[in-house]
Amino acid sequence: MRSPSSSRPETRLRRVALAAAAAVAVPAAIAISVGCQALVGIEGSSITHVADAGVDPSPTSADATVTDGDSLVPRDSTTLADAGSTSDASFDGSCDTTPGAGALDAVAEADAPDAAACTALERRCNGNTLQQCTSGAWTDETTCTIFCRNAQCETPPSCTGINQACGTSGDPRSCCSAHVVEGGAFVRDFDGITPSHDDDTYKATVSSFVLDDFEVTVERFSRFVAAYPATGADGGAPSGSMPTVGKGKNPNDPNDDGWEASFPMPQDRAELIAAVANGPACDAPTWSTMPSHLPIACAPYYVAYAFCIWDGGRLPSEAEWNYAASGGGGATDGQRVYPFSDPRTSLAITPADAVYGVTAPLSVGSTLPRGQGKWKQADLAGNLSEWVRDSYNFPYLTNPCMDCADHTPGSDVATRGGDYSLPATLVEAAARSQAPPTYGFSTIGFRCARSK
Q1: Which residues lie below 8 Å from residue 198, measured CB to CB, with a gap of 6+?
Q2: Smallest Cα–Cα separation from 175: which of 209, 213, 127?
Q3: CB atoms < 10 A from the CB of 143, how many?
Q4: In angstroms, rounded to a whole number, what is the distance separating the alpha carbons of residues 65 and 29?
Q5: What residues contact residue 354 under an 8 Å CB cut-off, 6+ apart?
Q6: Taking all residues of the chain, what is their mean pLDDT, rounded to a whole number?
Q7: How far apart are the C-alpha atoms of 437 and 414, rounded to whole Å?
Q8: Rounded to 5 degrees, what are φ and ψ at 168?
Q9: pLDDT tens digits, residue range 286-313?
């Protein structure tokens, strides 16, 4: 591991107060296919039928897009960038062609049941329910205890043999429970309500992915410690917890190289334990040799990334994390002030919703079910701030963003969600922070993502 500097590192919370962005007209020459609707054209700020917009309905122009399932995909790599750079045009993802409609609610659920014929004994996931094809129709086979992925119920290595539940008595779940976050379009760091989050400049689209319901607990992390530092042939469990080069990539991000040989890691198990129990920036560790449902704090970024790879996943990108916390970009329930805001514009928050303004974190999921986000993740506001895959830069280097992440070397790493010590205004879904990746902090934890 790199030698720590003599001075104590500090996290730096940078909240940028930005002026409200003015509405910008969208060229009528853009043709868009949205999967659940025929091609539509955008004129001004309203969405109209192609015939009304005078657009050739065949997506042949350079600034057209085509659909890939239910996701918007640029016809070529310059399409969205060109649109954004020449006109600041935006597409709000709506399948409602009523002029003036501004909804992002029509992102189709990839695993939703449909009437299509299926092959006998074929299996698929419908949310966390495993389905099997019987007599040409999909029928429920079982509800997965942890999560359903790749047409099977999966149990990550960190929860193998663990039967204790996280959450509350009113909503108990496996500590490894995870749910699908259905992809779509939204605006990063935006809720349109709070003064620091009213700039709608930074558009993004993310593909569907699976995100842990909980921050990684001390008990789960102890399994990683026990396997450290052997390297498994597959870069992960069960034979070792030191990743191999290239593991942990987001398959939707062509610029993600995954794990690199240069990433600094503890040399052995004793050094790993020392990092999370008594690191130079770890003044309030949660590490214990006893089973605990407290979130693991003080894990440096690289250790967090290595854990997620070992556990069969990866760190979420900042766009993915922000999308999940915001509830997507829907006009009726997206771009939330807090992950649990209902209605989405509500500024209401109490200790029953999130862990904030206190002196220590609580067990993960302690505010369930009230404090969960749209896709059932807990503690997206408060408790511990969370490492994400991206380096920190402002303004964002990629705009608009299509499954992007910032891989700038040598930078601080972005963190999201705010922590237990902060006031309510700093645990909003749009809030960002940053920290040096080689140190672990008492206020920073993490959760893992998995590609769907």
Answers
A1: 18, 19, 20, 21, 190, 191, 192
A2: 213
A3: 11
A4: 12
A5: 338, 340, 367, 371, 379, 381, 382, 383, 424, 427
A6: 79
A7: 9
A8: -120, 170
A9: 999 888 999 999 999 999 999 999 999 9
